[in-house]
Amino acid sequence: MTDCIFCKIASGEIPAEIVHDNDGVVVFRDLNPQAPTHLLAIPRQHIATINDLEPDHAELVGKLYLAAKAVAADEGLAERGYRTVMNCGEEAGQTVFHIHLHILGGRPMQWPPG
Ligand code: AMP
After folding, report:
1. Which of 40, 64, 83, 90 for mutating ligand 1's site (highest number of atoms within 8 Å of CB)?
2. What does the domain layout of the chain look like in residue ranges?
3. Fewer CB within 10 Å of terminal CB in the chain, N or C?
4. Any ligand 1 atom below 6 A from CB of 15
């Protein structure tokens, strides 16, 4: 999609610190980190929100989680734990309308989230 910031990161048009790029999934560091490690895993394919997922996206969504597992291990988070979050829609706090899995770690997390 031409006007999507995360599509532009995936294409290299906008710079980002990419830590993983494999099998249709790109993972990069969040510009405004909310934890010592804060990564975003996105599909190269533009999908705006969870509400736009179709059955044939199931494998791609699984790949987002497998990428999260891989980068969490790379960042030393696998054993101590980390949080994955995908916000859907404005009330949940989604600000970029290209699905992305937040991967947060390196500090204790509270529950419930705000
Ligand atoms: P959400 O609020 O769930 O839509 O998350 C969007 C996330 O994208 C926020 O945590 C932002 O800090 C992050 N973000 C926005 N623009 C960029 C960018 N150019 N590079 C890296 N992260 C970004």
Report:
1. 40
2. 5-105
3. C
4. no
Q: How many residues does the chain have?
A: 114
Pocket lining: 87 vs ligand 1, CB cutoff 6 Å: yes
Assigned CATH class of 5-105: alpha beta
The reported pLDDT for the residue numbered 2 is 82
pLDDT in tens, 54-84: 999 999 999 999 999 999 999 999 999 999 9
CA of 40 to the centre of ligand 1 (A): 8
Instruction: Identify each DSSP E strand in the chain by its residue range.
Output: 18-22, 25-29, 37-43, 82-85, 101-105
Alpha-carbon distance 103 to 37, whole Å?
8
> 99, 86 in Cβ contact below 8 A?
yes
Report the candidate in 19, 69, 24, 62 with the shortest Cα–Cα distance to residue 42.
24
Q: Please list the ranges in the chain whose pLDDT falls under 70.
A: none
